[in-house]
Amino acid sequence: MKNVTDSFVSLGHWPYAGSFRFNTDILATNPINLSVVLGVLIFFGKGVLNDLLDNRKQRILSTIRNSEELRRGAVEQLERARARLRKVEMEADEYRMNGYSEIEREKVNLINATCDSLERLENYKNETLHFEQQRAINQVRQRIFQQALQVALGTLNSCLNSELHFRTISANIGILGAMEEITD
């Protein structure tokens, strides 16, 4: 602690800067010292400074050249990418148009196939109806024929005696025999 107080006490022994005066001591003045130091630095440091500036200039120029080359490369890549994009867009449009036309073709083919199927079903239905009508007509004819035959047999049995019946059967057998000879 004594050292700290001693330092404050010693401040009291410093002379006061009461007035401004001109210092005639040339070596003690800063402008002359600075000019000498600057002169020495310029004389001896001129080459080093020029080399440093030239190196810096070359690095800057090299960086600019590299940047220009990179920019040109990037521009070329951009143009190639744009050309590729245009090509892909044209192919996509072509695929889209082909896809739409293919879809339309498939739609038309499906409609045509459906119409053909409907037409076949309609024809099958008509054939089935015609067949069923013919079968119904044949059944009705058969029943009418059977009923007519039964009525005729009933009439013949009631009207015929056994001799007439025997002659009728013989005549029919003769007709059937003649028909058989004609067909052979």
From TrEMBL:
Record bears the keyword Ion transport: yes
Keywords on record: ATP synthesis, CF(0), Chloroplast, Coiled coil, Hydrogen ion transport, Ion transport, Membrane, Plastid, Thylakoid, Transmembrane, Transmembrane helix, Transport
Pfam families in alphabetical order: ATP-synt_B
InterPro entries: ATP_synth_b/b'su_bac/chlpt (IPR002146)
CDD domains for this protein: ATP-synt_Fo_b
Keyword Plastid: yes
Residue ranges of coiled coil: 64-98
GO molecular function: proton transmembrane transporter activity
This protein's GO CC annotations: proton-transporting ATP synthase complex
Subcellular location(s) of the protein: Membrane
Membrane topology classification: Single-pass membrane protein
A GO biological process held by the record: proton motive force-driven ATP synthesis
Positions of transmembrane segments: 32-49
Reported function: F(1)F(0) ATP synthase produces ATP from ADP in the presence of a proton or sodium gradient. F-type ATPases consist of two structural domains, F(1) containing the extramembraneous catalytic core and F(0) containing the membrane proton channel, linked together by a central stalk and a peripheral stalk. During catalysis, ATP synthesis in the catalytic domain of F(1) is coupled via a rotary mechanism of the central stalk subunits to proton translocation.
PANTHER family per UniProt: ATP SYNTHASE SUBUNIT B, CHLOROPLASTIC
Family that this chain belongs to: Belongs to the ATPase B chain family.
Protein name: ATP synthase CF0 subunit I
Source organism (scientific name): Neoastelia spectabilis
Biological classification of the source: Eukaryota, Viridiplantae, Streptophyta, Embryophyta, Tracheophyta
